[in-house]
Amino acid sequence: xxxxxxxxxxxxxxxxxxxxxxxxxxxxxxxxxxxxxxxxxxxxxxxxxxxxxxxxxxxxxxxxxxxxxxxxxxxxxxxxxxxxxxxxxxxxxxxxxxxxxxxxxxxxxxxxxxxxxxxxxxxxxxxxxxxxxxxxxxxxxxxxxxxxxxxxxxxxxxxxxxxxxxxxxxxxxxxxxxxxxxxxxxxxxxxxxxxxxxxxxxxxxxxxxxxxxxxxxxxxxxxxxxxxxxxxxxxxxxxxxxxxxxxxxxxxxxxxxxxxxxxxxxxxxxxxxxxxxxxxxxxxxxxxxxxxxxxxxxxxxxxxxxxxxxxxxxxxxxxxxxxxxxxxxxxxxxxxxxxxxxxxxxxxxxxxxxxxxxxxxxxxxx
Length: 366
Fold this sequence. Notes:
Oligomer: single chain
Structural class: mainly alpha
Number of strands: 0
């Protein structure tokens, strides 16, 4: 037990590919053992039953022996034995991978039907229901052909009987020489010839019908194979289309992922460059923000004053804004600055005092 656990532990530590190969080989080996066991079980059960060896183990019947020793019901044990007897060791050995259920179903068919099924179908891949239906169809076809054959044999015997009748009449006519033929004999001859003609007609029709049925059965088999092949092609085509669709989706996701990756890399590069720049003076940054805010707000106020339609209100707004501008100007001019910076009067800014905001649109308003 310790060796088994050790082997199992060792296998789990193998590389994934080597472990997969080892397990697959073990499954195949066990499958071959199981398949061969079907043949041996059938042969050995048959030997025990025929030679009554079960009595040596104290069992009164073979059924008790199978039930107690192998938990096999009577029908199950008989299935192994009858399958072995009908198919033979060589056939079962060659097809043991089909399993006892399929082999037992094949054993119920006659050799010709069984050979046709094995030749036309992959029995291992079809379901047991499909195999059962296929064997039933073959059996029905065989029974109908057998009926046609029996009918054909009967008609041939009747034809042979009728064909011999004219000869008997001819012999009788030669033996009994008469100048005038016997009306009864002539009538019998005519009836025999008419019956012969009718029998030949029936035989021909029956033979044609049998041939037509055979052709129909063959056409049905060919058509079924076409349908199966077409279904396989359609399934393969659908699977291929599905794979291509998923591949396109995968390619698109990869493309987007690469784009996102490139964008992130660019962002990282930008952040790295920003990190490498010397930090800006905090006061200077604050000044820029405030100056930008004041400039934006002043532009908004100027635009608001220009768009005011009421003349009285616009003049009032203009005066208020101008008061604020002058107050700001006075406060700015009071700031101590370096001697080399020149400060000019308000008139030097190039904007008249009464039109600093461009509120008047023409000379009349001024």
